[in-house]
Each structure stands twice: as structure tokens, then as C-alpha cells.
Write a structure and sequence with these properties.
The chain has about 500 residues and is α/β, with parallel strands linked by helices. It has 2 domains: about 375 residues, Alpha-Beta Barrel (TIM Barrel); about 110 residues, Golgi alpha-mannosidase II (Immunoglobulin-like). About 25% of the residues lie in helices and about 25% in strands. It starts with a strand and ends with a strand. The model has no long low-confidence stretch (mean pLDDT about 95). The structure holds alpha-L-arabinofuranose. The site of alpha-L-arabinofuranose has 10 residues, from loops.
Amino acid sequence: MNRITVNPDRSIGTINRNIYGHFSEHLGRCIYGGIYVGPDSPIPNVNGMRTDVVNALKAIRIPVLRWPGGCFADEYHWQDGIGPKDQRKRMVNTNWGHVVEDNSFGTHEFLELCRQLECEPYINANVGSGTVREMAEWVEYLNSPGDSSVVRQRWANGQKEPWGVKLWGVGNESWGCGGNMRPEYYADEFRRYQTYCRDYPGTKLYRIACGPNTDDYRWSEVLMERAGRFMDGLTMHYYSTTGPTWEQKGKALSFDTAQFYELLAKAARMEEFVIGHSRIMDKYDPERRVGLIVDEWGSWHQVEEGTNPGFLYQQNTMRDALVAAIHLNLFNRHCDRVVMANLAQTVNVLQSVVLTDGERMVLTPTWHVFDLFKAHQGAKAADCFVECDRVGEGAWQVDRISASASEKDGAVTLTAANCAMDEATQLRVRVLGRRADGEARARILTAEAHAFNSFGDSPVSAKEFTGFTASAHFIDLELPPCSVIELTLA
Ligand code: AHR
């Protein structure tokens, strides 16, 4: 028997809504076609933003959106993306597919998108090929209420009031596509750049330093030691893949049992990295003032056949839904350090929540996981003790159950995934201090591991689940193979 014991009286803190964040880069069809179609498009839109996509993201209560990259961020010059569109500079997107970037989606458009989504903007600015002045002036353009030439430019472009953007990333993957820097060098660059990113009246910046790749603990150590006191957040990137090498990645839709468990086992490793980097941060920041920000995570598979290899377009199955559940559960359980996470990437790229094809749109299984988990946003994390065995094949083993719990407005929410590919799992849940035979509701997402939603057919979606019995102390349920549930005790 697998058991989960939830103790709402033991909490490590509040689950920051921003853990449920997303990431949108000028990459493939993420922005152009996926989010932005322009005001003259026949696809229904408001000021150029696709209405269907905006509604789909609002339905999962997207709290924060990161932009413009990614690797693209360190080649992006914000001045190219403001002013009359026909005068905006054209560039070739050398990171992603060598397509022409006409800069028709720039600062004003991004902030209009965030306004429509009612989410917080998180801008990742250019260190790799930019200048300190360029970054400083972007902050001024966005946030200054004063009367300077830079601000007058904003007025001329139709925005009188400052936007008050707080979340500010100083470089992306500066150890790689963002400049191939050493941590010692980047630590100094971060100190310098952030100095001139001013706090304007009404907006205190939350300064985010580029953190490590995966298990690069030395990067975290050097950054925290040399620049920890200048930052509010430190990023970390880790993607889940299958296959022997990065170049020989497995596919999104076709995989065998071993590859199913390989991906889940790789996803679960995120916890090891969160703990490892948190330990280093604890050494320099025992009060946990600096947040760990996992601003790129998710499955990364081979691109779908017949698509531009530089566009990173991939489909998304129930296996990826489990990857999402594993991550979100572990971020909840570490919410005393993890303050934001951004799934890569929102629409039409890696583990997207939405895919589009012309005017058609489809919600992926991953979208449904975000929907099942949304009650955790801003809730008080509840201690969630899981007793279960491991499932897997060969070297690839993973806990059978992934879970987390929270409490908000008197309701306790438990989210749990059955990571067994083809075995149902008996589960007994106890919520301490609560009668279990009160008002309990559940929703479930379940399908065969390879199931996915296509433009013609969407077989994967969450449904009400009544297959549980509640006695005074326990809720007993049988979780179908490959499933994710949300259980709520009112
Ligand atoms: O998400 C795709 C790319 O992966 C991002 O641009 C980059 O930051 C990371 O390497």
C-alpha cells in the first residue's frame, strides 16, 4: 500500500505563484504565429495577440512570463523593437533557424501581452552583446516617471505612464550562449550591470543573476560568494531528455518503456539540483533572501519530423504531463528557496502548454497539469510525506508517487502522479487534523503514456474523478497508470 500523509500544520512557507510561470522566446513559432499574429490577421486577436492563446493561458492563471529569451536575449537590442513597425530594424535570428526577425513584437507588445494575460512581466536583458548603457536605458524606458530623452521616446511611442517592470534578468546562460563567460568574470559583470539598473520611484527592481547549468555547483559557489549580496534571485536551468547524448535525443511521440522511465528519472533529478544549489546558497544566504529561479525547465526531445530544426517544435504526451507533475510537486516542496520557475516554452517550442497550426490551437497534456495544480498558487505549502516503492526499468527508476500539498482558504489541495507506466496504484491518503469523509473532490488526467492531443483529436483532458472512498481518517483510491490527480478537501 502506498501512502501519503499531509500535515497542514507543518509548513515551509507559501508557494510563490511564480513557480507556475512560463517562458516565451523569439524562437520558432513561439512569439510569431503562436502568440502574436498582428492586428490585421484573420485569426481573432486583440492588438495582435491571439485571443485563443491568451484565454488558454489565463485559464491556467499564468502568473509570470519571461521574455525575450533564452539565447535570443543576449543578441536582442531593445531599441530595435520600439517605434513605428515599418522602421524597426530587421535582423537574422542566428540562434534559432536563421529566420528574419522584423522586431514587430518588442517591448510595447510584450507589455501589452502581459496586460492581457494579467501576469507579471519578467524581462531578461542582454549582457552578452549589449552594453551597460543599453541595459540601463531599457530600465529607464520601462520604469522612469521622469522627463528624460529616453522617457520622451516612450511617450512618443504611446506610453505615458511607466510600466513598473520589477523582474529583471541580467544575462542568460552567460556560461554558454550568453557569452561563454567564466563565473568569476560574470560575477563581476553582474555587479557592474546591476549597479546601473536603477530603482525608479515606485519600482524596486528584483535583480536576477544568471545561475548555473544543471549541476554546475562551482558556478553557484562563485556567484554567491562574489555577487550574492547584489542579487535577489539566482537562476538555474535543467532540461529532461532521453538518449545517450544531447545530439542523439529521443523523440516526443515514439518511445519504449525504458525511455518512458528514463525521462521521468531525469525529471526527478531536478530535486537533486535544487537541493544541491540551495545548500550552496544557504552557506552565503542563510536567511534565504535570494530566491532560486528555475527559469528554464521541461522535456527537450528531437524536433518533429519535417519541421525546421532551429524551431525546436515538439509534441507533448502523457509522459511529458508526468514530467510537469514531478517538477511542480518538487518546486512546491522546496518553496522556501524556489520562488519562480518558467516552463520552456509556452507555445510551439519545447514542452509547450499550447500548440498552434494557423488558426487552430490545441491544449497539450502539460496544460492540463498546470490546470490541475493551479490551486497551489499562493497557497501555504503543507508537509506531504510519501511512502511508496520505485518503478522503472533497468537503471531508470523513479518514485512511484510524486506529490505535494497546500492549504488555502481552509481547503487542502493534494496533487499526486502515478508514475507507473502501466500499473494502477493503490493509494491511501491521510490529512492530519481533518476528517476525510467531509467534502472531498478530485479531478484526474490519465491516458496511455503515448497519448497526445493533435489538431484533429484531443483525447487527453482532465475529468472529474469519483473513484475514491472516504472514511473518517482516510481517502483510499486507485490511481490509474500514468495519471495525475488533484484532490481537494474543502
Ligand atoms: O529554451 C531553448 C534554449 O535553451 C534557450 O534559449 C537557452 O537559454 C537554453 O539553452
